[in-house]
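Hi R.,

As promised on Friday, here is the backbone we talked about, encoded as structure tokens. Could you run it through your design pipeline when you get a chance and send me back a sequence?
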């Protein structure tokens, strides 16, 4: 493939949204060569009560949707699925996997939708077409021969609740809890940390809280790019006068100002709403220190208030009634010097005090966060700290307040809800045992990092991927890639070709499936799916678009056929009944989780979805102490490594033109980087100090000190407004630099936002 892109790097002047967004949507529809009328018809149905839930992010759908309830990046994701381009058996006949491995991520997926089941032929190093029956039979035979403990069942976060429930059940009936998922690389730190802090693994707010909040503190989440529909909720809050305080190493345009691209008036008048009222460019890994500073300033305000006999800055009665460990935490905070807080956070005391003032004046505060908090060695403590901050003023479990982790994939939270978990403690195994008459495996399964370890040490022998691009999303890419083709079996269920499909086990199949926007017909009847959003609301999703190829099967059907080909028949497990009528899968889910899914088939049609109960929201604390816990962090810096003069903290980022490993294009509009992803963003002082110059080509070299050589070269130095000591690069291009051992302590979330590297000319 020839590459004719010309890099163009210059600051972007526009707001998020606006005409830039409208033009970008137009360009995407052209790029995917989709018929415009039918695509617009589909976009019209996006995130509507009888429509489909967007395949891009997990931001909730409002009860009363806008005319077009989609954003630029949602439109991109839909167009990506509705594309008229096709990756056919003829394509595979022309290219070996070795050749395709030299293509870029963008070029691979740009070939379009997979159309036909394919078997990998090692002799020719090519994929060849096969029949579905043959594939199911061969995979079933392989699985029967492998030790169940040596096979993993990966899930990427997009498949529906129905498919995910059956997939997890398949793994357990087969004999393991090896259910790693994309959440293991994403918000796993959230689940682990929030369970300890407040006894609930997910966020506590719903959409309505954004209409009631008086202040939002916003950590390490790039809403303008990764959950753009959220900008509407932020805009409304900003217009009501609610302050928004942002902590982010980069000045992300989407958090600074927004023009609603769906409002003709705003578009024509060029009207922008400023969003962030205060923007704090914290160092990557500096959030524990920053929040310690906020808490310290808050304690000072509280001391002063007490001295003067004024209203306290702490919600003393909430802390006394609901919390555990406050005194120890306050002791820790008081013991930290402002000097240490400033140097670890990179923020000035005065700025933190101002933010604390704003926080103290608000009666209901939402704490929003994303990968900027989770993907660090002390990622769980970042989240404990945010919870601590909210607890100090009783900001959990009241209207307009709470924790809002912004989830990634559109059904990643739901997959965990219905059993995709390597930790059996998170799954009602006894109920499954009774419902299906079998003894479920009780030992912990493999998560994503442990799967990689198993591939490296030879204990993992088989891999099934329900979507995703495992080999590109993980850390330690080169070593894991090299060990991958020693696997006996690899099966990929996918909509488009990606790099993970080009490194294969001895026996390998690529099974193409329907996407969520497409019509699913089983047994002559149209089927409905459902998903769970970032605020634990569950919605029906109805696909109507014509399938990309008549050969495609639904994900549910594929999972059912694989299970049938592998497992001995069990009269209590109605695989065919389920595949013929998805409503019966929902009945089974309801039977397993009666508290959460009561009246599922009916309530999923509620506009805005039905809300799964959340104990912390009700101020019921299912923790070890029965209270909400204040938790003291072990350090002020979350990176897990020492600073050294030439050691930088690399944060790996998403551009505005990608969905995870899917690279739609090369225009990171808001950051002003166009035509290339091979860049390293650096502060001008660091560039000068290192004797480099803007535009120079450098390589990044791992500085983990573990003796393993890891590097990524050919990167262009770009002068950028980023704190000194930090550099930025793109995900997934920079993934070879992340050691497998560099992950959050308890959840094993890879620490992709502070990777120790050196910059080498
Ligand atoms: N269009 C689009 N939408 C997506 C995705 C996509 O790729 N494209 N991916 C989906 C998925 S799976 C996920 S998980 C989410 C990801 O959405 P986000 O959580 O927004 O993830 P990132 O873009 O990786 O990084 C978030 C922000 O963290 C900041 N940051 C980095 N390090 C730190 C730090 O140490 N402290 C603080 N405070 N900030 C830091 C970065 O500057 C960046 O603005 O989006 C989902 N939605
Ligand atoms: N360095 C670094 N690494 C990271 C991150 C980071 O910020 N920095 N982020 C991490 C995060 S948050 C995540 S969630 C992971 C993402 O990791 P994954 O979820 O594994 O990766 P994706 O890129 O989302 O997967 C894209 C592929 O999914 C397939 N696909 C798309 N739609 C469908 C569908 O409807 N059905 C099926 N069966 N397949 C489909 C397509 O073939 C497409 O190529 O990456 C992680 N890796
Ligand atoms: Mo994610």
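Update: got your reply. Pasting your designed sequence below so it's all in one thread:
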């Amino acid at each position: 493939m020839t590459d004719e892109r010309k890099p163009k790097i210059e600051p972007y002047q526009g707001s998020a949204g606006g005409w830039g967004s409208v033009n970008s949507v137009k360009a995407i529809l052209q790029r995917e060569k989709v018929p415009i009328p039918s695509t617009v018809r589909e976009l019209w149905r996006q995130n509507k009560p009888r429509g489909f839930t967007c395949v891009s992010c997990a931001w909730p759908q409002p009860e009363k949707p806008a005319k077009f309830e989609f954003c630029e990046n949602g439109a991109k994701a839909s167009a990506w699925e509705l594309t008229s381009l096709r990756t056919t058996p003829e394509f595979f006949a022309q290219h070996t996997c070795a050749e395709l491995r030299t293509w870029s991520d963008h070029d691979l997926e740009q070939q379009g939708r997979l159309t036909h089941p394919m078997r990998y032929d090692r002799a020719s190093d090519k994929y060849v077409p096969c029949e579905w029956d043959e594939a199911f039979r061969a995979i079933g035979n392989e699985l029967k021969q492998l030790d169940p403990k040596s096979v993993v069942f990966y899930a990427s976060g997009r498949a529906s609740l129905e498919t995910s429930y059956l997939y997890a059940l398949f793994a357990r009936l087969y004999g393991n809890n090896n259910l790693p998922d994309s959440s293991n690389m994403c918000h796993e730190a959230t689940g682990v940390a929030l369970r300890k802090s407040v006894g609930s693994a997910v966020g506590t707010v719903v959409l309505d809280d954004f209409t009631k909040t008086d202040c939002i503190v916003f950590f390490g989440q790039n809403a303008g790019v990764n959950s753009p529909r959220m900008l509407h909720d932020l805009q409304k809050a900003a217009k009501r006068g609610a302050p928004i305080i942002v902590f982010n190493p980069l000045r992300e345009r989407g958090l600074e100002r927004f023009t609603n691209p769906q409002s003709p008036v705003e578009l024509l008048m060029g009207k922008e709403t400023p969003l962030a009222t205060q923007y704090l460019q914290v160092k990557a890994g500096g959030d524990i220190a920053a929040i310690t500073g906020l808490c310290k300033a808050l304690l000072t305000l509280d001391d002063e208030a007490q001295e003067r006999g004024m209203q306290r800055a702490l919600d003393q009665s909430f802390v006394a009634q609901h919390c555990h460990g406050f005194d120890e935490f306050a002791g820790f905070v008081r013991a930290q010097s402002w000097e240490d807080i400033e140097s670890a956070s990179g923020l000035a005391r005065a700025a933190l005090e101002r933010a604390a003032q704003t926080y103290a004046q608000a009666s209901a505060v939402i704490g929003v966060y994303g990968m900027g908090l989770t993907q660090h060695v002390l990622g769980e403590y970042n989240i404990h700290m945010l919870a601590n901050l909210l607890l100090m003023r009783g900001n959990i479990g009241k209207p307009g307040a709470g924790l809002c982790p912004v989830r990634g994939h559109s059904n990643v939270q739901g997959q965990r809800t219905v059993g995709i978990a390597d930790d059996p403690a998170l799954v009602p195994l006894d109920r499954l045992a009774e419902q299906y008459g079998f003894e479920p495996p009780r030992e912990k399964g493999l998560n994503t990092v442990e799967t990689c370890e198993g591939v490296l040490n030879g204990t993992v022998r088989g891999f099934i991927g329900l979507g995703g691009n495992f080999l590109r999303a993980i850390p330690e890419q080169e070593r894991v890639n090299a060990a991958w083709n020693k696997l006996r079996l690899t099966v990929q269920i996918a909509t488009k070709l990606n790099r993970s499909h080009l490194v294969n086990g001895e026996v390998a199949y690529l099974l193409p499936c329907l996407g969520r926007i497409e019509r699913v017909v089983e047994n002559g009847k149209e089927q409905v799916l459902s998903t769970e959003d970032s605020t634990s609301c569950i919605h029906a999703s109805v696909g109507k678009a014509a399938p990309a190829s008549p050969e495609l099967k639904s994900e549910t059907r594929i999972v059912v056929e694989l299970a049938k080909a592998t497992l001995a028949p069990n009269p209590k497990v109605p695989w065919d009944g389920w595949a013929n009528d998805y409503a019966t899968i929902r009945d089974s889910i309801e039977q397993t989780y009666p508290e959460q899914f009561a009246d599922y088939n009916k309530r999923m049609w509620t506009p805005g979805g039905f809300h799964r109960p959340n104990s912390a929201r009700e101020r019921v604390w299912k923790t070890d102490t029965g209270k909400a816990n204040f938790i003291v962090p072990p350090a002020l810096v979350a990176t897990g490594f020492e600073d050294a003069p030439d050691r930088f903290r690399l944060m790996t980022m998403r551009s505005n033109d990608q969905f995870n490993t899917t690279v739609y294009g090369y225009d990171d509009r808001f950051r002003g980087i166009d035509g290339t992803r091979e860049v390293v963003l650096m502060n001008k002082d660091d560039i000068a100090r290192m004797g480099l110059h803007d535009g120079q080509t450098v390589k990044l070299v791992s500085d983990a000190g573990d003796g393993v050589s890891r590097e990524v070269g050919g990167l262009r130095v770009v002068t950028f407004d980023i704190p000194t000591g930090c550099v930025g690069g793109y995900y997934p291009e920079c993934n070879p630099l992340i050691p497998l051992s560099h992950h959050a302590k308890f959840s094993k979330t890879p620490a992709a936002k502070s990777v120790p590297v050196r910059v080498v000319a």
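One thing I noticed while checking it: Residues 342 and 348 are 6 Å apart (CA to CA).

Thanks again,
M.
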